[in-house]
Amino acid sequence: MQNSKVVALVLVCAALASCQKQSAPTADIPPPCAKSDATPTAPAADTPEARELARKQALLDYATMEEGFLNDPKGQWAREATATSSFGETRGPVADSNKPQNIAGKPDTRTWTNDHMDMGFDSFEAVYEKPVHATAVRIVISDGVEALSKVELRDTTGAWSTAWSGLSDVKQEKNGARTWFVREFEKTAQPVQAVRVTIANNVDKGYKHVDAIQLVGE
Ligand SMILES: [Ca+2]
Questions:
Q1: How far is the CA of 100 from the centre of ligand 1 (A)?
Q2: pLDDT at residue number 45
Q3: Can you give the CATH number for the domain in which 90 is found?
Q4: How far is the CA of 214 from the centre of ligand 1 (A)?
Q5: What is the 77 CA–ligand 1 centroid distance (Å)?
């Protein structure tokens, strides 16, 4: 009988030890909702001076970006351009100030204007002097940037390929007179000689004004 008492005692002790072991780790677990000591980042000072400084910095950033594009040694401007419609064409001869040829050359505030505010699609096509293995297209547009919907490239074999299509993620520029719509892509295998840009008129209502288009490559 004594043996059975010893066995019972051992079992009770083992059970107690087991309970202690199981409950021990919980002591080290931090409270579930411990508050972080990290303080939130203080907001930038919202003073008239700070706002003016930010405004001027944005203007400077735009100027720096534009200067880089204008002086890009790998960039060339269109030699000539044509378009599917020009402002006023249904009412008589198109004025020089609205013709697609205004897209040729560097940005100069002279623009092509299409003839549709919100109906259907328009497109313009630009041809370049020197075919290049292209890596980017930069469109200089003063109105209608959100309606741009496709950029296609024509290589020297005459084949067209789509470099980009979709909804424009570029908004009207607030820090400069011109909006730069830039699409970069994998260097083309074939030299590119022409670019066609499609405009979905209903996406950004109003007449579209395109100043210039730059092809980047070498
Ligand atoms: Ca122009």
A1: 9
A2: 77
A3: 2.60.120.260
A4: 11
A5: 10
Structural domain that includes position 210: 50-217
pLDDT of residue 67: 98
The separation between CA 131 and the C-alpha centre of its own chain, rounded to angstroms, equals 26
Share of the chain above pLDDT 70, in %: 80
User: What separation in Å is there between the alpha carbon of 99 and the centre of ligand 1?
Assistant: 10
Cα of 45 vs centre of ligand 1, distance in Å, is: 41
Q: Per the domain annotation, does 40 fall within a domain?
A: no
What's the pLDDT tens digit per position in 145-195? 999 999 999 999 999 999 999 999 999 999 999 999 999 999 999 999 999
CA of 44 to the centre of ligand 1 (A): 40
Would you say residue 42 lies in a domain?
no
- Residues near ion ligand 1 (CB < 5 Å) are 102, 108, 110, 211-212
Q: Which residue has the higher pLDDT, 212 or 14?
A: 212
Q: How far apart are CA 114 and CA 43, in angstroms?
A: 45
Go through the chain and tell me how many residues it has: 218
Q: Report the run of H or E that residue 2 belongs to, with start and end.
A: helix 2-23
The CA 146 to ligand 1 mean position distance, Å, reads 19
36 domain residue, yes or no = no
DSSP string, 31-92: PTTPPP-PPPPPPPP--HHHHHHHHHHHHHHHHHHHHHHHT-TTEEE-SEEEES--TTTTTS
Identify the weakest region by mean pLDDT among 40-44, 60-64, 140-144.
Answer: 40-44
Number of domains comprising the chain: 1
